[in-house]
Amino acid sequence: MYLQRVVITGMGALTPIGLCVPDFWTGLLEGQSGGGPITRFDTRGYRSRMACELKDFRPGDYLDHKTLRQTDRFSQYALIAADEALRDAGIFPSSLNPLRCGVIWASGNGGVESFEQEIRANAASQQPPRYSPYMIPKMLLDTPSGLLAVRHGFRGPNFGTVSACAAATSAIIEAFTYLRLGKAELMLCGGSEAPITPAWVGGFDAMKALSRRNQDPMTASRPFAPDRDGFVIGEGAGALVLEGLESALARGARIYAEVVGGGMSADAWHPTAPEPQGKGALLSMQWALEEAGIQPREVGYVNAHATSTPAGDLAEAHALAQLFGQGAGQPYISSTKGHTGHLLGAAGAIEAIATACALHQQIIPHTASTPTTDPALPQAGQFLLHRPTKRSFGYALSNSFGFGGHNASLLLKRWKK
């Protein structure tokens, strides 16, 4: 069976450190932090009162009033990031076969802000319930994939992926698989999240998942640090255009990186906690490398999931140590969540973009806000903490692990003409 080679030809991003891919990438290299006090709602009484919000973002600059009225923030973020990705790829719907173009989009939470607003409004009213006819489509996690298909006329495979914080990486791997098998010619994929709401922040804090370093929100997300105490919740979206190599070359597309492997696994351990030794995380990385037919020593960089939680960072470090051992050729490891916080279901999309940029530019971003690594972590590679580094490398892994024991690892390869 012929397997098509798959490449990334377009990217779009809305992040707490940049509202487009160039600004996002610059923010990573400059060590910017998206952390700050929550401005979206009154946080008095909350133990965690910070987040990585989008800065200077006005959705009306991108979308018309009707679209804004009928959609939740997480869908708006998807539409905006996807528009950038398609422009970046030089894709115009009129030049495509819409039957061979699809959309796979991810979210871990969906339209939670719209849901909360509807419940509060009706609970406070003395009148009979009056729910918006848009409430249900605003909430559904597969709404962005449908909206994107309508917006761009794509009639190929279309669905949403839900695997908690691994959701966007799962979406990219699924898109890669459809293209590799020849079931599509172009796939738009990624993820979006808008979870900075009273109930969601309160719920994650009740689980003791969030950092409470409210006195210094810009450095509260500190992956791998000895004093890490939880993640900083973030919002935004990342979109990628994947297409077959032959198609990309035929139209003279710019290629950021080649997608060469994807691995997904389950911890089968606990509803929220990771398997302590990282067995599931190790399996997803091994399968990604196996699909590409490469050895661990060939990986030059790992964009770690590393959310800044005590248990999660330790489990991933165990998995990385088992994969790469103590020998020569250990990769550089960093977590861009030190810059952006944790975008939950969208995290894997913006981190795949960061990994593709790292390969394309041959520059590895560092882990912001982490002055030193926890000595309790097993030696897994070279943790890059203080500044980016230039390095010639051919392969990079991007990891995403989520509540429920969902693991997904994406393997990218440097593109050379």
Automatic annotation (TrEMBL):
Q: Does the keyword Heme apply?
A: no
Q: What is its EC number?
A: 2.3.1.179
The record's annotation in CDD domains points to:
KAS_I_II
Q: Which UniProt keywords apply?
A: Acyltransferase, Fatty acid biosynthesis, Fatty acid metabolism, Lipid biosynthesis, Lipid metabolism, Transferase
A single Gene Ontology biological process assigned to it is: fatty acid biosynthetic process
PROSITE patterns found in the cross-reference section: KS3_1, KS3_2
Tell me a Gene Ontology molecular-function term this record carries: 3-oxoacyl-[acyl-carrier-protein] synthase activity
User: What's the protein called, per UniProt?
Assistant: 3-oxoacyl-[acyl-carrier-protein] synthase 2
Gene of this entry: fabF_2
